[in-house]
Write a structure and sequence with these properties.
It contains 13 helices and 13 strands. With 334 residues, it is of the alpha/beta class. The N and C termini lie far apart (99 Å).
Length: 334
């Protein structure tokens, strides 16, 4: 009798154990299914190009199903302050953000330092991720960092300079000393321009406050100015244009937002697309994709953008083919 009782108790216990597993598993799955990830977006400074990247990131995350109550986004803007970058990066770490995105190289570097090789960091618009020591290679990043790179089509930019100002001999190039991407683009353009026969003069600013004085010096010494994809130069673009316009010096910049601010023309890689692809990558990483083996996506395709009002102001006759190309595939500012 006791043996039968013990056997019955054993059966009941086993049944209850199975029932507990069956009933508890959906609860765990439901918890995982309803989990709302937190991401931190750190932007270096406010200006149209970086704002477009931010807008693209939100759209890319939405495409991956992360929008509304499906995600918590903590957006921080450092306003070009290094101390802010550090504080905001630490804020994300304290909040245990599931993933962070850095818009511009200084923001990405700050996030990478705080993450210390562990939490995922997605790059958004980083010109030279390998040279910045953010990834080992673009094909195989090798750690907790991957994302998008916006590589300026420098040879095409040089072609625009030749078309817009065919008789120019002295080319001024200006960049920000603290912007690795800007310096990278500026020096690479200098090599291309020198090989093409230009007398290249390099100018630098430490902060946007330097632009007025440096631009005045530059405008008195060159025939045309190249403004690379550089956050400091982009932020001070209107100051640069005010000076160069007085001296009738055309500026050929790197991106469409800088043409809108007074540049004459360029081949522009879409900043929105850079952000959009970064948002998609962030979504896939949240779903489990490994950053170490997730290649950096380099955006290189650009479209013609012209500012007809600026060309007219400077007395420049833009080639009809350039204008037609902008009207057909790119953008025209009038």
């Amino acid at each position: 009798m006791n043996k039968r009782l013990l056997s019955s108790i054993a059966v009941i216990v086993a049944f209850l154990a199975i029932a507990f597993v069956i009933t508890s598993k959906p609860t765990a799955d439901a918890k995982k299914k309803n989990y709302v990830p937190t991401i931190g977006i750190l932007q270096l400074v406010t200006h149209p190009a970086l704002d477009e990247i931010h807008r693209g990131i939100i759209a890319g995350l939405k495409e991956q199903g992360y929008a509304g109550n499906k995600i918590k986004i903590d957006y921080q803007n450092a306003q070009a302050n290094q101390s802010n970058l550090k504080t905001m990066s630490q804020k994300f770490a304290n909040e245990n953000a599931d993933l962070t995105l850095g818009i511009a190289t200084p923001a990405a570097l700050s996030l990478a330092k705080t993450a210390n090789g562990t939490d995922p960091v997605i790059l958004a618009g980083i010109t030279d991720p390998v040279g910045s020591d953010l990834v080992k290679t673009t094909k195989r990043p090798g750690n907790n960092i991957t994302g998008t790179s916006g590589d300026s089509p420098l040879e095409q930019h040089l072609g625009v300079i030749k078309q817009v100002v065919p008789h120019a001999k002295k080319l001024g190039i200006i960049y920000t000393t603290s912007d690795h991407g800007g310096e990278y683009n500026a020096k690479n353009m200098a090599k291309l321009a020198q090989a093409a026969g230009y007398d290249v003069k390099m100018y630098t600013i430490s902060t946007t406050n330097d632009m007025q004085l440096v631009a005045e010096t530059m405008a008195s010494q060159v025939d045309v100015v190249y403004a690379p994809q550089d956050n400091g130069v982009a932020s001070a673009m209107k100051t640069l244009i005010n000076v160069t316009n007085k001296n009738k010096i055309p500026v050929i910049p790197a991106v469409d937002t800088m043409v809108k601010d007074g540049g004459v023309a360029t081949i522009s890689v879409s900043q929105y697309d850079i952000g959009y692809q970064a948002g998609i990558m962030a979504g896939k990483v949240l779903k489990g994709k490994d950053t170490a083996t997730y290649p950096v996506k380099t955006i290189t395709k650009g479209d013609m953008v012209v500012n007809l009002k600026q060309a007219q102001l400077l007395g420049l006759k833009l080639p009809d083919s350039m204008i037609k190309d902008a009207e057909t595939k790119g953008e025209v500012f009038k």
